[in-house]
Amino acid sequence: MRWQDIDQQPCSLARSLAIIGDNWTLLVLRDCFLGVRRFDDFQQRLGVTRHVLSDRLRKLAEGGVLEKVAYQERPLRHEYRLTTMGRDLYPVIAHLAQWGDKYLADEAGPPLTRVHRQCGEPLEAKLQCGHCGESVEPRDIRLEENPHWAGTLLPTQAG
Amino acid sequence: MRWQDIDQQPCSLARSLAIIGDNWTLLVLRDCFLGVRRFDDFQQRLGVTRHVLSDRLRKLAEGGVLEKVAYQERPLRHEYRLTTMGRDLYPVIAHLAQWGDKYLADEAGPPLTRVHRQCGEPLEAKLQCGHCGESVEPRDIRLEENPHWAGTLLPTQAG
DNA sequence: AACAGTTAGTTCCAATTAGGAACTGATAGT
DNA sequence: ACTATCAGTTCCTAATTGGAACTAACTGTT
User: Most buried among A72, A142, B74, B111, using CB within 10 Å?
Assistant: First the structure.
């Protein structure tokens, strides 16, 4: 199976990764959340080559994560803005950044701290169940298979 | 800049992605959370080529996300198990899967539902501040720069 | 003893993708 | 006329991927 066909899988994670799972793409989104919107700004901040950046921005726009908005005519130029769909990826980025803070920082400590405005403390990101409001660990989750794919998704002999 | 040098950046997200940001790696971890541990099981479930799988498992083990544990001698064979560091990635996977459920499912609906055992309802994953317990949106976060990299990380003219 | 089966890889080659640098096109400012 | 801005595109080489076959170290079966 080719990576570019991964969106054919009946798996929400695989389909998500078909849009945002390529190299560089999550770093593009990081910069989007920092307010970066223009091609050259992404390129200079990331150091990614221009045609890879061009490809990633196109995929993100086609996938609905970013929208291409004209910010001037003559010459026509566009910038890239997060859509609601894109902003919904914030928890993914926050948890990944926190995971790096925890396990991969050097002596000088994490480069950025995310402060929760409402409580004034550094964010300790947790996974919360929106229904009951409690924090959730992996063991707290039970998987239910959609009957349509019954028996094809979960491993048979493991748990 | 080459993608393989991305772990040199003073950015926790970039360093996280250096370990888990390659194509296929998050799908390997998805299967780890489903209880898959052996090379051939990963290979058959994912459809990834064997040498790419070999490379990804090696990087995950070197990065501390998985540990290679012998499950038999003669011939010596190993399986791959999530470490605590690896289990800490669960929120990332849960949010990515939920994002796919929300935006990328087809007519038959999401293939799997994650049920929160404690409350019995399908998980509505949210980003929670562990300090105050409230749900967090992107706008609730203020970034503070580590003085050690002052002025080099955040964009100058955006927000 | 010979043979197939299991399992975690490695090796080989063609095809795709990435990295680096230069180039294009439309326009504004000097 | 010349330089600068800015979002790309084009070109070439180098690295990575996809696919298939192969290896090594056994176990179990005829």
Answer: B111
